[in-house]
Amino acid sequence: MILPFLPASNLFFPVGFVIAERVLYMPSMGFCILVGYGFHLLSEHWSRKMTWCCLGVLLLTHSIKTYNRNADWESEYSIFMSGLKVNQRNAKLFNNVGHALESEGRFEEALQFFHKAVSVQEDDVGAHINVGRTYNHLKMFKEAEQAYLKAKSLLPKAKPGESYQARIAPNHLNVFLNLANLISKNATRLEEADLLYRQAISMRSDYTQAYINRGDILIKLNRTKEAQEVYERALLYDSTNPDIYYNLGVVFLEQGKASQALAYLDKALEFDPEHEQALLNSAILLQELGRPELRKIARERLLKLLAKDETNERVHFNLGMLAMDDRNTDEAENWFRRAVHLKQDFRSALFNLALLLADDHRPLEAAPFLNQLVKYHPDHIKGLILLGDIYINNIKDLDAAENCYKRILQLDPINIQGLHNLCVVYVERGKLLQAQDCLSHAHELAPGEEYIGRHLQIVQTRINRLRQSPDGSREKEIAFADYDPQEFGGRAGRTLSSDSVDLLPSLGNSIVNSNSEEPSGQEGDLPKEDADVPFGYDNKKKTVLPHQQLEPQAAPLPADDDPVFLESDNTNSPQSFAATVGDSIAHDSKHHRTDGSSSGKHAPTAVHRDDGVPSVKRADVSHPPSDGSLHHAHPAQQHLHRPKTIGQDLDDPSSGMS
């Protein structure tokens, strides 16, 4: 009975495959019975002492071997390396060593073993997938794509009249997802990625992961209706998958259907109460519905997330947003400070914290946060306007204020607020002729803004008065000094004198500033963060004498408005992650911007977050279990954002442990 097994025993020559030790547990019972029976026979024919000595030697040698073997089981890496010591012709062993190294982040070493697996067995599809995935980890995308294409070329070819689905290993279909994910990083190849997902679905109609990822591509292609149909079809095969419900919620958000979106996010939470992205995004939707009872639910969901991860700056920020809705500025300040502490370049938290402090008459506390904001986000126009405001009115640093406004005009040459406030700096410096030309240029760009006309009239009046004064004064010399109109975007060689511009019709004597009151809807209104006008300094009423001074255009808050207007950070990172769909999404019926810029027009007031639109959950597995089941990535982003895509590829379990 033993002879037929000798060729496969590895005793005389290596056979090229390995057998897991667990499959030898039951056969070892027969070996133990043979040892006991042999001991009985020897004790009858030999002396009892000699028999016991032989048994002792047998037990000692096997005990030593067992002790030494335990060291091999210290880690996955050590156990698979022990297998390679006795068998160098098995691709599965090389793949498993590579997986062990990959799990430790040692990608360069893992790549060597995956390449060795390919050299041992060139038609091993899983080994080529492993090579491609490791190249992807190493940011060697061209090599990764070549490896995936090689794996794809090794798949069985369809034969006429034969089901392709029955001829291909399901795990090998992962190559389509990994390759599609890789090329989808290039926005010009989205159609190509969509074709790969459709091929995978045609080979296996219940391939849920392919449906999920294809839906994400369709959203990026602005084909939201098709994405909706794809997700609904995926539900036919997996009706309890919370990620599919979450993604459907994202699709409805893309379509502007907030109530349907919230219903699907709640459905995702029904199947997975710990679904982090559904918790976060549903909380934000509940908050923006504006009802106190819903804000309570939103707060509970955010606090639940906070209990899971106290280092998530997004959760702190949105708790601050809720506190602002409840008009609890002290609590909001605390949450915003925590968010900034966790992420120093958190655009939204920095701006909103600074604006909150400025509105609370603490501009000197706001200034460091604004400087930090423009350090990390030098294109944040609203932050630059607020910072320039503080420099003029509180720190009295006209040079710094002028730099802020000139920076705004570099970013947006027709930004009326930045241009007007730069004109004010010229007035503060006493450069009236330059201020007149600057205000004239602003009036040409925005003829409907009455406050600019009034300020221009004030400057012209002061110029005329100064012309009538005796020559030789320092004030007059500064007022009529030469200047370069291109500093504020004026035409070169265009220098206006006071008598070259007709005085505009009288528009009143009051100078509009941060502390004077204006009727609602006029230039005096200070819209919420997203609006395109400058920000105010405080809300105190103050009478400003005509012809005395000009202040940067900004006005008080209407009595029925929130004290602070919030923006949210534009996470420009896809991530940061591969699938970012769109740039922003308007919530409720209000409009908002996402870039921190201003257009010079009065926009409707709105509270917004500019973190981008919701992210679609995509299948994402870096190291799947041996049974081939798929896990989903945890969110790393915030507000109505698309979850991580397949940033890490799907392993091929068939190339893993035996």
Describe the fold and architecture:
Among the domains are: 3-72, no CATH class; 430-489, no CATH class. The protein is elongated. The longest helix is centred in the first third of the chain and has 25 residues, at 48-72. With 658 residues, it is mostly helical. The model is unreliable at 493-658 (pLDDT under 50). It has 25 helices and no strands. GO terms for molecular function: dolichyl-phosphate-mannose-protein mannosyltransferase activity. TPR repeats lie at residues 91-124, 125-158, 208-241, 242-275, 313-346. Its EC number is 2.4.1.109. It is found in: Endoplasmic reticulum; Membrane.
Could you list the spans in which at least 5 consecutive residues all have pLDDT below 50? 493-658
Beta strand %: under 5%
Q: What general outline do the C-alpha atoms trace?
A: elongated
Q: Supply Rg.
A: 35 Å
Query: Percent helix among the residues?
Result: 40-55%
DSSP summary: helix tally = 25
List how many beta strands DSSP finds. Answer: 0
Average pLDDT over all residues: 75
| Cα end-to-end separation | 26 Å
- Kindly name the structural category: mainly alpha
The largest sheet is:
none
The helix/strand order is HHHHHHHHHHHHHHHHHHHHHHHHH
Write the layout of secondary structure elements.
Layout: H1 25-45, H2 48-72, H3 76-86, H4 91-103, H5 107-120, H6 125-137, H7 141-153, H8 174-183, H9 190-203, H10 208-220, H11 224-237, H12 242-254, H13 258-271, H14 276-288, H15 292-308, H16 313-325, H17 329-342, H18 347-359, H19 363-376, H20 381-395, H21 398-411, H22 416-429, H23 432-445, H24 450-467, H25 474-479
Helix pairs in contact: 1-2, 3-4, 4-5, 5-6, 6-7, 7-8, 8-9, 9-10, 10-11, 10-12, 11-12, 12-13, 13-14, 14-15, 15-16, 16-17, 17-18, 18-19, 19-20, 20-21, 20-22, 21-22, 22-23, 23-24
